[in-house]
Amino acid sequence: MKKPTINTLGALKKTDYRSRTVKEELRENLISILKSKDPTFFSSIKGFEDTVIPQLQSAILSKHNILFLGLRGQAKTKMARLMAELLDEWIPAIEGSELQDDPLNPVSHYGKTLIEERGDNTPIDWIHKSARYSEKLATPDVSVADLVGDIDPIKAANMKLSFGDERVIHFGMIPKANRGIFVINELPDLQARIQVSLFNMLQEKDIQIRGFKLRFDLDVQFVFTANPEDYTNRGSIITPLKDRIESQILTHYPKTIELSKEITLQEAQLPEAQESLLNIHPLVHDLLEQTGIEARESDFVDQKSGVSARLTIAAYELIHSAAERRTLINGEKKTVSRISDLFSAIPAITGKLELVYEGELEGMSNVAYFIISKAIRQQFENYFPDPAKTKKGNINPYEPIVNWFNKGNNLEIPNDLSNEDYIERLSDVPGLLNIVDIYKKDIKKEYKPLFMEFVLHGLAEYSQLSKHSLEKSIQFKDMISGLDFEMDFNEEDIK
Question: Residues 129, 68: one domain?
């Protein structure tokens, strides 16, 4: 929709334009969307279709200010920004008004005075909805002047006005967001005395600045985001402020792996070159999302802090980059995802976790390695028989593999191994290809090495083999040699 050409108050009065508050605007536009049964508007928010989205819609219909409560990485800011799409494409405002005055209902001294002087010739400007969304991250250094405003002595001097004149006020971010949406992220980080300054704007809608009491209808849709109050040590939302926010909506992490995969695929930023060179099997993506789930359940991780959905998004990007690096080193044009690629994503995991004391003792990288390994074990039974159960039975499909390692053989898979060498090394293990052919008959030939490696990792997680993460590779051995390896490693550490 193009910017309207009406440029005076008189011309505006001849149209069907009517004044609406921003909350009325949001409500009426949402009603139109719900009536049209448009499935696309909220489709960018995955996993909230039956929980958060209905609550958000009800809050908008009730014309409520909103607080999104949830752990990090739960799309709180994304939902706030989505609300801006419910605004009208363009709205008229008195030209030059810093409060975006409605021409038919001005609230500022500037707007009222201009209409008194020029009447129907008052110039009109048009504001796009993108300019009506304001966002502020709450930090300890935010002041009342930043949010609400203050007396401007320079303006008073230039205009030769006394400090008692309303025109010397410098308005803060919230008044300037008049007729729009104003978002404060991480509300508990805002000092308590600053939170108090929001009381009147939320309830009585008047502004108090150093003795001034400006009673005008501040037309702002407030949206706040925060971690649950009792989960954060950084600060809290003071009770009177929380009482003034009409709707408090709890967010959550995706409840299934499939939803997690949809979010990751939607949010990951992959260069086209990477997407074309890597064939990533759903198994690897399942393991990645399972890693996020295990992190949220790990005793080493501070669950009060949460584990952001950005963990799996960043890890997914690193998996592609590790594969790209491998193809560049080996001069190859395409490659297939590997289980060992998951361990290349450890930097994405370590940066997203806050550990408890026991986790700090283990070390960040070790915790990440442990979480990936646990995800492999959790997913293994979805593809192959449980090694612990088959060991007790008469037929053990893993016996040829374990026996080969028990004879003193070992297998090392370097991170940068070429496709040809990767297949060759896995093929050296007797029975490995056979078990994939038996239990995964329908997979394409190019993915068989991936599942062969998966079997080795699974056997290691069920203590049939030992697995060691070396600096540039992963090594598999029998259990006894693995114990000797760890003893030698610890002795070197002591020296």
Answer: yes
Within a domain: 2: no
Residues 166 and 231 in one domain: yes
- Closest-CA residue to 164 (of 201, 206, 210): 210
> How many Å from the N-terminal Cα to the C-terminal Cα in the chain?
73
Domain that holds residue 429: 384-495
**Angle between helical axes of 52-61 and 76-83 (0-180°, round to 10):** 40
pLDDT by 10-residue block (mean), the chain, 495 residues: 90 93 96 90 89 95 95 92 94 93 90 93 95 92 85 67 67 91 92 86 72 73 83 71 93 93 92 88 95 94 88 95 94 93 92 90 92 95 88 76 94 94 95 94 93 96 91 89 51 41
Residue 91's SS3 state is: strand
Q: Can you tell me the distance from the alpha carbon of 349 to that of 321, in angstroms, rounded to the nearest whole number?
A: 15
Residues 40 and 131 in one domain: yes
- Cα–Cα distance measured from residue 190 to residue 202, given in angstroms and rounded to the nearest whole number: 16
CA distances from 143 to 138, 139, 183, 192, 195 (A): 10, 9, 16, 11, 10
> 256: which 2 tokens?
């299934």
Q: Could you tell me whether strands 473-477 and 411-414 are parallel, antiparallel, or unpaired per DSSP bridges?
A: antiparallel
Q: How far is Cα 72 from Cα 87, in angstroms, rounded to an integer? A: 27
Please name the residue ranges forming H helices in 247-386.
Answer: 257-267, 272-277, 282-297, 310-330, 346-350, 357-362, 364-380
Which of 355, 380, 405 is the C-terminal boundary of a domain?
380
Closest of 398, 415, 412, 414 to residue 455, by C-alpha: 398
DSSP 8-state assignment for residue 414: E
Strand 247-250: give its sheet, edge to edge.
133-137, 180-185, 220-226, 66-69, 247-250
Picking from 184, 216, 250, the residue at the C-terminal end of a domain is 250
